[in-house]
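Handout, tutorial session.
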Amino acid sequence: MAFWEKAHLMGEYGKRLKFYRRFVDDLFLLWEGDESTFAPIFSHLKGSTPYLRFKMKSSLDWVDFLDMKVNQRSDGCFETEIHRKDCYRSSYLHRTSMHPQHIFKNIVRGQGLRTSRLAVNQDKFEGELKELRTRVLQRGSADNELDELRARVLQRRSADNELDELGTRIAYGSVVSTLSDRTIFPSFFRTLPSDTFGAVALAHFIIHFGWKWIGILSSDKEYGVLGAQRIKDILIPKGFCVAFVETFYSKNPAAKIMHIIEQIRITSVKVIVIYSRQEPMVNLMEDLYQHNVTQIVWLGPPGWSVSPGFSTNVMQQLLNGTISLYAHKGDIPGFKDFLYNIQPSFYPEDIFIKQFWEHVFRCSFSGSIASENKGKEKPACSGAESLTALGKPVYEEEEFRYTYSAHNAIYMLAHALHDLSFCSHTMGPFSNTSCPKIHEFHPWQLAHYMRTIHFKNTGGEEIFFQENGEPPIVYDFLNWHELIDEPSKYVEIGIFDSRAPKGHELTINETGIMWGKEYHQAPRSKCSESCSLGQRKVIRQGRPVCCYECVSCSEGEISNETDANACIPCSADQWSNKNQDGCILKVIQFLSYEEPLGIILAFISTASSAITVLIFCVFIKFRDTPLVKANNHELSYLLLISLVLCFLCSLIFIGQPRKMNCLLQQPAFGIIFSMCISSVLAKTMTVVIAFSATKPGSRAKQWVGNKTPNGLVIFCSALQLLLCIVWIVVSPPFPYVNRNASKDRIIIECNEGSTFAFCCMLGYLGLLASVCFIVAFMARKLPDSFNEAKFITFSMLVFISVWLSFIPAYLSTQGKYMVAVEIFAIISSSAGLLSCIFFPKCYIILFRPDKNTREHMMGRVNQSARV
């Protein structure tokens, strides 16, 4: 019901409610407007939830609510009468029933008090009281009992009326939380916050010093129990832990004392909050001192002080450094001068000022009690002595905290009366915009102006009441200094002020704090040491959240704050640093021209293609020589051009993969190598056909010529070209950013698009190479002036060996090294073809020209024929 009330009634419509109360599911409210303006709101409330049904009774005068009738008078006050529903039956418990006697008395007394409170009008009250007497007599009660009841009720009613006549009350020293109930005490105001708010200030003090592991000792009274619970409610949601909450009594059994001591020792708390009045603590502190419970910082609630009630040993060894809350002491300009300039002659009727004067100046007035009782003569007091001439403090300034509170109370009343007197009759806050008269006003009218005061006092501090009618929460923190060589004293070390901006309510002078025995600075009170950067907390099983172990974050996760509850995973483009307290960008990896491996491979590829071009130039220059002509120079040219392209195509693999070079890498490699191997196969077939055609009756003669090898090259290359076109159209290769292959690197690589197509391309090259190897191996012993088939066999053997080694090496590497393996295979296999086929010919052309003659070539042929 409370959630519904907050969501649907008190939000948007709450501003127009002049008065609102709820008892369970019965609502009573005063609406600022007529019934027609409230009808849409009532319709909204009826449709706000399917679980509640609403009925409305409205009236301009009397309205029934629960067991009473309510009316608002012209002066704004509520008037009530007893309301009896149609189903009402006065069937009280009969006196002859077998119930304890006090039950009957309580029934009658309860009905009498109900009558007194609900029947405001005196005549109505007398009539209701007579009717109650008649009904109770019918149930067997005696006359003398009813006479006693009437006397009690009248006495209570008289007391209530006297309290009401007091009107608005402003207390300067009352902190009892019960007085905060505005339904019972609507006209009660005070200048000091309720004692329950001391828990707020203490909790902020604990949070400021980071004491996440504390103990609480509370009295068995409501004050202690509720105060301890309020501190827990504030601290626990913020991640702080309460090691124990122990309740003690004025006189504690030995077992209870030992239990508290054991709790303090086991939990190793360094800070304990006391929530109790001072008296029950005296015996407990003596017991703790006897058991050597020291090294504790004690925090006391509002008004808790280290007084002479404690023994000297307890104050020096146990309570030294205690921090307590006190009522705020502000500045009253001129007050100190007033105190130090008073003289007995100013107040001749005040007997206390004369006693004070005699004590301070060690003199006596004639006829005083001190001069009569003391045998030793004292100098006579003139009354003109100067307090300032003493040169030392005369007053205990801590005693003037309540003076400051009384000072504020007087100014509050003055400001409220001032606002009331200047009320504008056209803009009054009461019915029909009326205003009260300064000499004729009701207490509740003054209470209205009290709620709205807001001013700065003579000391410059803001004075106002919050929405709940309570003053702002302002406390001074005092630190007890128990010194050996100097008088013991309280030292003000800070203030908690709820009027300050959020996050700045607490102001502490840490250098002025005395932390007590064996502490030179603020103690650390934690169940577990803080987890450093790069670690996270793991709660120990069965322990509070403040008791944990620290474990390092996993790879790829960081914690950049102490006591992190969980590690933060780095983004996909980042990785944790060595200390795991920050994310760093992953290294982007690909085979580039700027690194040594890329430079070496690019140099070898370029140099190899240059050597191939030089060999091509040699063959062009010596194209008319028998050696070049004898080996089908057109195929040799095509093979050399293919090898140049083979070496150069490896450069496409170097550099950052992009859409275009990924699209060209594998297809270009496959097509160029198909041309290369097809040319070698054509050269081998040329040799086989040429020698087969020399045999009588051989049909191989029809295949002699350039058409056969050229057609073979075109056909074999066209198949690979067709496969690559289908590959590019259906599932083309593309650049891929691989973030999962390595934990600390991002690999930019070319994805083949279709692994099947890539395997088909390699398989086709392997098929061509295998066929070429087999044909060359079979033709290696054919007679020839320069046995080229033998060198082709070796070249194919090298080619196949390289690519068979390539497959496992390619599959076992990743990133730039996988690309380097493929480039190495391309260069190695191309260099094998170049060296095995063309280096022997270049050697003869350049260094043994005597063998590059027709006669030599024919001689070798004849020699081979004879053999």
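The second record follows below. Compare its token runs with those of the first.
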Amino acid sequence: MLSAQFPPIQPGKTSLLHCFVNKMVYKNKSQILINLNALKLKCLNASVITDPNRRDIVFLLDGSDNSEQRFSDIKDFVQRIVADLNIDTNKDRVAVVQYSNTAEVNFNLRQYSAMDDVLDAVRGLSHKGGYPHNIGVALQYVRDNVFTSESGSRLLEGVPQILIVLSGERSGDDIKTAVRMLKEIGVISIAIGTTDADTIELQTISHEPNYALSITNYEELSTTKQDVSSLLREASHHVKETTPTASFDSKKQDVVFLIDGSYDSRNGFEEIRGFVGKIVESLSLGENRDQVAVVQYSRDATPNFYLNSYSSKNDVLNSIGTMRHKLGRPLNIGKALEFVRDNVFAASVGGRRAESVPQYLYVFSGGRSGDDVRGPAQSLKENGIKTFSIGTKNADTLEMQTISFTPAHYFYVTNFNSLQSIHPSLEATLRGAQETTDFPSIDTSIISELKLQSADIVFLLDGSDNMRASQRHILDFVREFVKQIEIGPNKVQIALTQYSTEPTIDFLLNTYFLKDDVLSHLSIVELKGGLSLNTGVALDYVKNNVFTASSGSRAQLGIPQILILISGRRSEDDVLGPVDRLRNAGIVLYNVGVYNADRLEMEQLVDNPRARYFIKENSDFPLVREQLLSVIASHKGTVHHGIGSSSSIKRDIVFLIDGSDDVRSRFSAVREFVANMVESFDLDKGKDKVAVVQYSNNAELSFSLNTYNSKDDVLKHIASLKLKGGRPQYIGAALQFVKDNVFVSNAGGRHNEGAKQMLIVLAGGRSRDSPRGPASMLKAAGVVTFAIGSRMSNSAEMQIISSEQNYAYSVPDFVNLPHIQQNLMGHLTQMGVKEETKAGKNAD
């Protein structure tokens, strides 16, 4: 059979099939085709990566308005790099693309095959122009239009694909998806950014962190030539072993709907049918496009039609519209999954897995399965089928998670009448699924993209003797949860408490503002032990001692208050009263029951099935963690009316920044730091007001507290700030200027209205005058001062200027300012909460 399909391999010759056959044992033709598709690039790569002068190199140049004055420097840099290449049709190829708000090709990889022609084309480049700076759009453009065979790319021949990106500022759009897609096809990226570019963005784009290079401005591009040349040589020997992603055709999909046809769905069958029809409406059906199949199941599965039954959308919609409810009991989901795998995604009925066409399965369930789903679900994942599951309140959450491609691909509805409410979320997740053909058992990227916003999350762990055997799994659960969220004073804050007979605090919400510090503490935590278990006492304790302003709670700022209880058995005291008190305080409770947890008590603790989870065995921990993350990330968080939706405390915040010649090369870092701080302020509602002052040998007001009433206006002014210049630094005189001219009522100061007045001082050098007197006068006037110094400033001066010892910061260089931003924001935020609490007590 094999010899009839393929010619014999000639002795002594290396061929694709030879490489392929040496790696695999085949059962049938379709298996051969699948593995051939997967191995084709690997084998071809092996034959070419030894030639360091055979590369496809694409320059993605900043063509935005901001780069116009330095575009000659950019062109000079490209010419210098090209001059060292070996340009030829069978050697190095070069393309150039410019971007701003859009991207456009100047010339592609196929256009020139001689060095002189490439250099002439680069010299003749005209600046594109445009705004803003959309790097994500540009990266997607080069993937779709430049790294293609039509444009001269030799990706499928295993030739290294190299992208050199120049960036002069932060991107105006999201880059993550485009970066991931470039990496998936094996593109190796080198990112070069000025001081106005975002360092994290550059490292995200780059192949590895050392492939991200920083310069002050485009004038310095020539200084990177040696580093770029070295990275190009290294990249020449670095070809990604590409999987069937290269063959992925986003214009084709095999989509199968597996519908609950049992008695459990009889009241929602019309809604399921309408929902399926709505999804089909968005597909592009045709002979060589999308295909659809529908299967109903109860005790067994019955196909309504197969993937190759219809080739027109109208025929499919007509069949769905006339579909009758199957009915029957019980609900055997595992058996149904096996049926669609073997009989519906099969090539004989239209399945196109052998052509690497993406395959998707939608499972609808209105109840718990009567058989095991784990084996069939795993085999679907191994076959590359991405499964979305939609379950009602009667379905088993863990079962639905297990079936889904990842826990984020599970969607909960109270009943099938609510299906339309999840359509936008499901479409967004489907788009994410279409962007990759990797098939992990658990994928956390979708969860991360949900972007859990600000929340105060307290973990309450059963630390009794009963849980000692599971200590590693429980603490890993907490650590991995923390790794997937953004920690910070304006993001998520974490606290940890254990309990058995009595509760014990490990750390509070305001103990740590950095993720690394939280994880460091978690790495040394051990369960406390104890014989008895008083969950009720522990619930009251965290309400009264952890969810408080003094412990870091931001409830009075309207931040969601979330408690995650992990328990392993029934409590020995009453839990109903404490649960009611938590609910009345606006604290949302999630319960994770482990092993011997009492299911009835779990229902008493949490009545929402999406907020309680049961772990039967250790392998369930990751699945439950992902689902919990997904549910909390979608939590809208209404704070109890007795607490208030936001703080009423007003803040006057003044930035006094070093504008001397000493910080000229780092002024953009200072400007970016101020802008990032302002992003977190509540300016649009008039709660916060901001002013900026620069100083060197004298002080100069950039704008006062009453100049702007909106965040956008403040940020625009900050973005346009120019260095004042001058030397030396007179910090004492600058502090006096701020006291006399900025915090005053005729300049917008609201001290008489009860506003908290705060000053943030940045110093890049030692003061020529004494700051002691003016600093004391500011403190006496009630101004809270934070001082930030670099390695050239005087640490004793910073302590004198700051209101408290821990309000003084030191960074090696102003480019390191982001390292202290979260901690500083933590102090600013907590100060607002403390003032709110103080005001409340005075009112009482």
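Points raised in discussion: The radius of gyration is 31 Å.
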